[in-house]
Design a protein that fits this description.
Layout lengths: L2 H24 L13 H11 L6 H12 L4 H22 L9 E2 L2 E2 L1 H5 L1 H20 L7 H15 L4 H10 L7 H27 L3 H28 L2 H4 L5 H5 L4 H5 L1 H19 L7 H12 L3
Antiparallel strand pairs: 1-2
Length: 304
């Protein structure tokens, strides 16, 4: 690993540690104002689904996009934690037998294996709700108008027209293969929407102008596509031990992916194109955007 890669890796791990500490506090046994109780089994299932490692890439993008515009770093950590709650809820539900039916996540038993299906469903429900609790809470020191914009953007990225809708399209694709345009739409919703929000959130937190927000949104769209392409390549090429979850499942289920349709050579060239486009979008910010540019390369070239 070269010096630049080492610096990026350190920054990614530091960011992950900050967000994990925030999540630890949010998922403590302390009952919050207006809560009645925190059932121990449900809390344990939520903690298992969130505090089980992971790169925390989406939170990192929130924090770095906020830093790009000089926004409130402490507020960014809480926004990042809210996004991670949504992401982890989606994984908990995605692993359920009715969805992708996985027993392993990040090298550990999935929540429904460890705590039962009912607790896994409720843990996902509670994590999704907690995300908006975090954004709206007084501890997130942002103007009400900014909080409202974040709530709206995250809701749109998470629900019917975003991640959850993308998961529905993904399940449907197991029986009726979509065309290439359909695959792009599916992936932009299931994977790309939360990554797009992560990048755009920094501009919202910082209260910067519409042009900056649009530029970061477009950056997020490019790296969201790159993330999914890299994921599809890893599903074909990586082993389960490295990935910390089962691999080869897309091919086994006959799921349509761009990699399956176009081949690995095309996918690798497309990854390079997307990273170049993402970097070009941030060129006007100069050296201040270097970490985000490095993040684009990391997304495309990661090994797990």
């Amino acid at each position: 690993m070269n010096a630049a890669a080492q610096t990026f890796d350190i920054r990614l791990r530091q960011s992950a540690d900050q967000v994990t500490a925030c999540l630890e506090a949010l998922l403590s046994g302390t009952v919050a104002p207006d809560e009645i109780a925190r059932p121990p089994a449900l809390l344990a299932a939520m903690r298992h689904g969130v505090l089980n490692g992971g790169k925390r890439l989406r939170p990192f993008l929130v924090m770095e996009s906020t830093a790009l515009f000089g926004g409130d770093a402490q507020a960014a950590i809480r926004v990042a934690a809210a996004l991670e709650c949504v992401h982890c809820y989606s994984l908990v539900h995605d692993d359920l037998p009715a969805m992708d039916d996985d027993d392993l996540r990040r090298g550990q038993p999935t929540v429904h294996i460890a705590y039962g299906e009912a607790n896994a469903i409720l843990a996902g429900d509670s994590l999704l709700t907690l995300a908006f609790d975090i954004l709206a809470g007084p501890e997130t020191g942002l103007p009400d108008a900014v909080k409202t914009a974040l709530v709206l953007a995250l809701a749109r990225a998470s629900g019917l027209g975003g991640m959850a809708g993308g998961q529905a399209l993904d399940l449907a694709a197991e029986t009726t293969a979509p065309d290439e345009e359909g695959i792009v739409t599916l992936q932009a919703m299931k994977t790309g929407a939360l990554i797009r929000f992560a990048c755009e959130a920094g501009a919202i937190v910082s209260g910067t102008g519409a042009e900056d927000r649009a530029r970061l949104r477009q950056f997020g769209e490019r790296i969201g596509r790159a993330f999914q392409l890299a994921d599809d390549l890893l599903d074909l090429k990586a082993d389960a031990e490295t990935m910390g979850k089962a691999t080869g499942k897309d091919e086994a289920r006959g799921k349509a992916t761009l990699v399956a349709r176009r081949g690995t050579d095309w996918a690798e060239a497309e990854l390079a194109r997307l990273v170049a486009e993402a970097s070009a979008l941030l060129a006007p910010y100069g050296d201040a955007a270097k970490t985000l540019m490095d993040a684009a390369a990391f997304v495309a070239n990661r090994d797990h």
